[in-house]
Amino acid sequence: MTPESKSLLNIFVLGLGFMFMFTAFQTCGNIEQTVIKSFNSTEFHGSGYTSMAIIYGVFSASNLIAPSVVAIIGPQLSLFFSGLVYSGYIAMFIHPFTWSFYTASVFVGIAAAVLWTAQGNLLTINSSDSSIGRNSGIFWALLQFSLFFGNLYIYVAWHGKVHISDKDRQTVFISLTIISLVGNFLFFLIQRTETEVAPSEESESPLPGDTCESDSVVVAPQGLGSQALLAFRKSIQLAMTKEMLLLSISIAYTGLELTFYSGVYGTSIGAMTVFGDNAKSLIGLSGIFIGVGEILGGSVFGMLNQCNQYGRNPVVLLGLVTHFLAFYLIFLNIASDAPLAPEEGTQLQAFIPPSMELALFCSFLLGLGDSCFNTQLLSIVGFMFRDDSAPAFAVFKFVQSIAAALAFFYSNYLQLHWQLLIMVLVGFTGTLSFFVAEWMVVSCRRNSDYDSI
């Protein structure tokens, strides 16, 4: 087997492992608030929104230590042990306790930082400059299929159920735990390549700075024990550059709407009693339509990056328009108290007669708009900070997870229309700041072309 075919096989195995893992975990996140409402026990008083806030809050802080963990035990074992923590979190729902619920949330936050750092490391090791776009597309598509399969299972398992019994909950979470474990063990099929850069070579790269007029300071080579400190310093300096500060608003928006489509919107649909006995199963169907939008958008806009004639701004603008349309239709269709409704649901209606078809169409729009923002943010961050991609994407995940944690926290208290308003304001501001950052990239490219002439 040639090195190129081995690397491509590794990318497929990596994508499949994440597909199985997040088929389980994203489905768990989508249904956990609904499951908790149905769980009658004096021993349990947890909130799904609070749990996800803890996960993303710890996730953001743990990005500072994750590179050191991956450097010590390697990316493959990092993926496996992090995946086991994810599986433990899912298995906890078979019989949850308040203490185990929130403790597992903390550990998953730490594991998430290690998992995604190891993923980025393996993707880079198994890619060349010419294949990184293709390999990123393959991984993205396989990952987004997790939304489709997991939620299809929930739709079939919960179809026609008004109340989620203990047996229903246990059956679903035992199945999801097994699916997650399959993904964990797939990581052992990843083969070692010869393209990994030695730690001493990595430490010689300059600190992050501007793409065109770099203010970076070259740092002398460091020993292995200084790698963590060096990575931390690089991340802090990169976070303070004007490009990353501009992009941070857009990145924060992806965190807010990640919270909305992965937890709040499914819960809101399941709380609409006017949808009848199918309301709970619609949570799964909503996730399927989000996944279809993600896969379609990721495929189309990933290919557009290969022929970047008009830049990234039109795709981001399309994402904003798509999301604003979705938010407006959700505002008209879903009751304002739906995210906070008790287990029996809400009797309120919004401004039009509630429509299941419209609710699912909005799910598709949420996924499509999310793919618009994420594909272009990954593209521009990878371009602007290509010499320091690891700390750049650590900052990306840090900002995104902080925003997601904040959104899951306020989801415990704010009605639907206030949550939509926050996303409208941040989305609009983030789009404008993205336009400015893209203009800086275009100016940089033109200056570079002029200098080469």
How many domains make up the 3D coordinates?
2
Helix and strand sequence: HHHHHHHHHHHHHHH
Rounded radius of gyration (Å): 22 Å
Please tell me the CATH architecture of the largest domain by its name: Up-down Bundle
The share of residues in extended strands comes to under 5%
Protein name: UNC93-like protein MFSD11
GO cellular component, one term: membrane
Subcellular location: Membrane
Keywords: Membrane, Transmembrane, Transmembrane helix
Quick recap:
One of its GO terms (cellular component) is membrane. The protein has 453 residues and is mainly alpha-helical.
Helix-strand layout with pairing:
Blueprint: H1 3-38, H2 48-62, H3 66-73, H4 75-91, H5 98-125, H6 132-157, H7 166-186, H8 199-202, H9 227-239, H10 242-270, H11 281-304, H12 313-333, H13 356-384, H14 389-410, H15 416-452
